[in-house]
Amino acid sequence: MRTFDTVVSLGLMGLALGLPPAASFDGVPEAPAVAVAPPNAATRAAPLTDPATRDLGRLSPPAPIPGSSQGLRSGNQALEFGKQALRDGKVDQAVTAFEYAARQGVPGAIWKLGRMYADGDGVEKNPLRAFEYFLDLARRHGDGPAGTLQARFAADAVVALGYFFLEGIPNSSIKADPKLAYERFRYAASYFGDPDAQYNLGRLYLYGRGVPKDAIQAVRWFKLAADKGHRSAQAELGAMLFTGRGVARQAARGLAWLTVAKDGAGPDETWIAETYSSAFAQASDRERQEAYVALENILQGRRK
User: Fold this and answer.
1) Between 20 and 30 A from 6 (CA), which of 12, 68, 140, 154?
2) Using CA atoms, how far apart are residues 5 and 262, in angstroms rounded to an integer?
3) Who contacts 144 (Cβ-Cβ below 8 Å, separation ≥6)?
């Protein structure tokens, strides 16, 4: 049996975790220094056997979209036709083509339909239908080789399913279950090395959702995502290290990571700039000087 065939219950990528970002510092007791290391095989997600997930394997497939896909000889042709139709503003034709390709198992088409229904992009927003597409994609390709485009789609799908389980889908059998969300994020974080999943794992450990609070594990997962350029993970990591939140305080290193996050943050990520400004204002002159050295080390490591 394929590894992912046993994982029968895999949130919506656009949904928020519902956890407030770190934006202020209110000291906490120090803990032993953290040795950040990548997870080993023991940290990989185990197949789910929770009885609550069994019926999800029998969710009905998405209903076919009316329209003709005649002349499209392959799923890949249909995918390309759908992309062009979207560029031309012909959403109905695009959806029909994507449905044709999805029925043939084309990962890009399944993923695109999931995102369209999740976001209400050109179609009526339908979280449950999006869930079904992401679940189908995860089942088909969730244990494929990492590092491929197919794996990228699969990883995104598994992370999306994690978000669904974190919040649930109203008026459906998909209920909020942080433990199931944790399993999805952990699978994508360990099997695919997905930075979004690693960041979300850090948040779950930090706030104790679906798993006991564990600041050391939170830092570990934030660090893995931060090394891959995940700005929110960089900011959360920096805030924890600067304040010593559950870990040994490393103010200079924390301020350095906050600097990296601030420099890459977009205009809609004001909490990152605010967190950096708060830390910089509280840092001593020596901590600021040491942060500059730590920043150079971080940047050099990313250039290797």
Assistant:
1) 12
2) 41
3) 150, 151, 154
